[in-house]
């Protein structure tokens, strides 16, 4: 068994988002972070929320997988660098480029100075070749910086509910590959 920590991006994931659909599928095996700053993300608040969710998930199963989307990727990476937990893997989907023109600078100023550094666990970074928040070159460079396996998909935008993926079977297959490593 595996427990999952769901780490959405800014404003959380709506009910049509693949993260929300996966959370329903996993039931008690999934724990969603609950920061106080969903709309104006504060990195220390999000890191504390990940820590709390990880503690809850760890009590359910000894092996925990972080499932992060968008800004949640940066919060997850930052938490991993600090906490360096055992028995963790990370799926990082559609990280935005903190230096890119579409980054929410005003809403998330504490996330602006982050850079991708090696993560202490098996990781997979998934991005789309047409993400409006991050070009494919930057996405791949984040994957390399995190020492995560990088996987680019075609034509899925920001890989969110607006991408029309439903419960994203291709993403579940990528996750299985990460978990089974």
TrEMBL record:
Task: Give the keywords, sorted.
Answer: Hydrolase
Q: Which GO molecular function entries does the Swiss-Prot or TrEMBL record give?
A: hydrolase activity
InterPro entries recorded? AB_hydrolase_fold (IPR029058), RBBP9/YdeN (IPR010662)
Superkingdom of the organism of origin: Bacteria
Q: Which Pfam families match?
A: Ser_hydrolase
What name does this protein carry? Answer: RBBP9/YdeN family alpha/beta hydrolase
Organism field: Streptomyces toxytricini (Actinomyces toxytricini)
């Amino acid at each position: 068994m595996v427990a999952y920590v769901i780490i959405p991006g800014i404003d959380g994931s709506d009910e049509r988002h693949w993260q929300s659909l996966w959370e329903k599928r996993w039931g008690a095996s999934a724990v969603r972070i609950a920061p106080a700053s969903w709309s104006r993300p504060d990195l220390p608040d999000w890191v504390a929320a990940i820590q709390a969710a990880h503690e809850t998930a760890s009590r359910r199963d000894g092996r925990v997988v972080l499932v992060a989307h968008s800004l949640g990727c940066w919060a997850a990476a930052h938490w991993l660098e600090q906490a360096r937990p055992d028995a963790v893997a990370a799926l990082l989907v559609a990280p935005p480029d903190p230096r890119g023109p579409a980054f929410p600078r005003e809403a998330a100023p504490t996330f602006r100075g982050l850079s991708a550094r090696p993560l202490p666990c098996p990781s997979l970074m998934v991005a789309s070749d047409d993400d409006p928040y991050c070009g494919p070159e930057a996405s791949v460079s984040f994957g390399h910086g995190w020492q995560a396996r990088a996987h680019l998909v075609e034509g899925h935008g920001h890989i969110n509910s607006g991408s029309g993926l439903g419960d994203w079977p291709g993403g579940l297959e990528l996750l299985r590959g990460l978990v089974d490593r």
